[in-house]
Specification:
- This protein is α+β, with helices and mostly antiparallel strands and 277 residues long.
- The chain contains seven helices and twelve strands.
- Strands 1, 2, 3, 4, 5, 6, 7, 8, 9, 10, 11 and 12 form a twelve-stranded mixed beta sheet that branches.
- α4 packs antiparallel against α5.
């Protein structure tokens, strides 16, 4: 894979020209100070944040202040995703000074879907179930809460309407040991030209006692198979240190790193009207 070309395509398709994902979501382009793309979900059910910016040393602080003012109208916490190659080089420090809290670094991994294995062995007694209804979503939610913490209600409230109104934009898979959900993951399939688009792999998680048995690999294979059938060219993942080695063995390449910076107005000391000007 030509990684420089892949990064340019990724920045364009996944960030600069990102589609709005989920019912009620919309994109807002701010060309006031530099250029910023906001992904907004007014009712808070979905991802709320900045997915792309084109700034420099002279425009960054004013752009950050403008985003704080813009998101104040919605009143929800929001995230600014900072990539290693974003400008200016000290963007992360500027966000910290403006009151944002950094999350963990993640590796941006990309693969040509044709290079990813689409078959993987499952442990005895385990089967994969494609989620298409509220009952299946409850199973996925159960795993998500157990692995990532008690935010399943928010996830369910977002994905439920997606399954009802735009089921073709997601692929949700749960691994069941008997009737018990033990691993789960999802893929986002935004509208993009056939044979060129990027599908995102998200939320892959396995209960601790079931790790190391190939379930994550099987969920990647299932989603790769589905996205290939849908005509997508690339898969992308924001990978933790735990999943990155597995993805590398499955044909993924590291493009860059990303780190979320979160502004939560409910946190002590955070006030919308204290945004720098």
């Amino acid at each position: 894979m030509d990684l420089h070309s892949a990064l340019r395509r990724y920045d364009a398709a996944v960030r600069r020209d990102a589609p709005a994902e989920g019912p009620g979501a919309r994109l807002e382009r701010d060309h006031g100070a530099g250029a910023v793309l906001r992904h907004v979900v007014p009712d808070g059910r979905g991802w709320h944040g900045v997915c792309w910016s084109d700034l420099d040393e002279g425009t960054a602080d004013a752009a950050i202040a403008a985003q704080l003012r813009a998101f104040a109208a919605y009143g929800h916490p929001f995230e600014w995703k900072v990539y290693a190659h974003d400008r200016p080089a000290d963007l992360a420090g500027r966000l910290r000074r403006a009151g944002f809290t950094p999350g963990p670094d993640e590796a941006v991994m990309v693969a040509d879907v044709t290079s990813v294995p689409t078959d993987a062995a499952l442990p005895e007694g385990v089967r994969l179930h494609t989620v298409t209804d509220p009952a299946g979503l409850h199973l996925l939610d159960e795993v998500h809460e157990a692995v990532f913490g008690p935010d399943g209600t928010s996830l369910r409230s977002w994905l439920g309407p997606v399954l009802e109104t735009a089921p073709e934009t997601v692929h949700l898979v749960v691994a069941l040991a008997g009737d018990r959900p033990v691993s789960a993951a999802r893929a986002s399939l935004p509208p993009q030209p056939a044979g060129t688009g990027f599908a995102g792999l998200w939320g892959g998680g396995t209960l601790p006692e079931w790790r190391g048995r190939g379930l994550y690999r099987a969920l990647v294979a299932a989603r790769a198979r589905h996205t290939a059938e849908r005509g997508f060219r690339y898969l992308h993942v924001d990978a933790s240190d735990a999943s990155r080695p597995v993805l590398e063995r499955l044909g993924f390449h590291r493009l860059t790193t990303t780190r979320p910076y979160v502004f939560d107005p409910s946190s002590p000391g955070h006030r919308w009207n204290e945004a720098p000007v």
